[in-house]
Amino acid sequence: MAAPSAPELPSCAICFEDSSHPGFSLADLPCCGSHTSSTTQFCVACIKMICAHGDLNVGKCPRCRKFIGMSASGTIELRSETGTCEMCRQKHIIVGHRKCAACLFGSDPKNRHRYECDRCHRFQRIPHPMYR
Known about the structure:
Keywords: Metal-binding, Zinc, Zinc-finger. InterPro entries: Znf_RING. This is RING-type domain-containing protein. The structure is a single chain. The chain is α+β, with helices and mostly antiparallel strands. The protein folds into 2 domains: 10-80, no CATH class; 81-132, no CATH class. The chain has 2 helices and 8 strands; from the N terminus they run αββββββαββ. The protein has helices spanning 44-53, 101-107; strands at residues 58-60, 67-70, 76-78, 82-84, 91-96, 99-100, 113-116, 123-126. The mean pLDDT is 78.
């Protein structure tokens, strides 16, 4: 007869740390609900890192891909400031530098896309969402 197994400790789906790690706390994501209602959970440290790597401390939720950010007090907030993007002139969520996510991605020099014109066969770089 098998011995009963110990209950699993909640762990982060990104770094795999569990609640036995000192300073570990699960993040309550404002877009996806409480960490207690989901089987996929993330720690506050990983969410901070995701936001820190984004422009203007805005990152994407690893579960639903909505824009989130860390407030000055350390709480996770849903970022939904909409406005007119400086580049494509359409109303979107502004991520940084007054641009939407697609334009910010395309305006980064390492992400610019090269296209060959089918008439003149010259190449051009397209820095805005027209690349889609």
